[in-house]
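User: For my dataset I need records formatted as: sequence, then structure tokens, nothing else. Please produce one.
Assistant:
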Amino acid sequence: MRHLLSIRDLEAEDLKAILALSTQPAPARLLRDKGVALYFEKPSARTRNSMEMAAAQLCGHPVYLQPNELGIGSRESIADVTRTLACYHAIIAARVFDHGLLEQMAAVNAAPVLNMLSGTDHPLQALADLLTIEQLLGRLKGARVAFIGEGNNVSRSLAEGCALVGAHFTIASPSGHGFDGSIADVLETSDPLEAVDDADIVYTDVWVSMGGEDSEERRAAFEPYQVDEALMARAPNAWFMHCLPARRGEEVTAPVIDGPRSAVWRQAENRMHTARGAMLWLLGGGPAT
């Protein structure tokens, strides 16, 4: 049984298989009369819509679940909830604060578990990002990706994906806001100008993630890392990417995100396609790890 909790769960061939499955027509009625459990501890417009539509394209029935409906760890154990959901659903997908909850679900091995986001990882976003980069550049190997911002779940998963496909990943972060622990083949710097030199992709994210700590000190630290027209001019052929939601005037200026070099809406659409590809892979498509 396959699970997808992190990009680290994949070999290079698995990642390539998911991207390939994401661009193919959906197999007719693969999930006919089957459910897909969607457990959300954290709300999300893109994740819910993309997952529900991907399940529908496979003729499955997505069921949206909130914490008060399951009582995980309070009314019932994680193992019991997982086994119960597996009685009705072909896939259990969860968007959670604690990555350990996903690991405990997967350990039950009752149904494939898919991480829709955790505090440490966001594999579905990375898959959509990589598909978008491949579409924009016509390749992944050798692509130069510059991430301007925090070493968070989004940047970590994208960095790990870049390493698998042979792309170069550079992250520019304020002191103390980079990656916790090293990631293979990643260049870390505190200088956003250095990061974007010769970049094919310039990527950023909000300064304060959902549920994260906001403060004047934090905003002051990130202010020099705004992606504006001057920064994009250092990479004149680069595309701009953002996982959304965005705060214009903070991490990115409106002329950049709404300009002709922005690929954010293609990214958003690709969340649906790669969600479908990930579910197809979990159900047996492509090579096994």
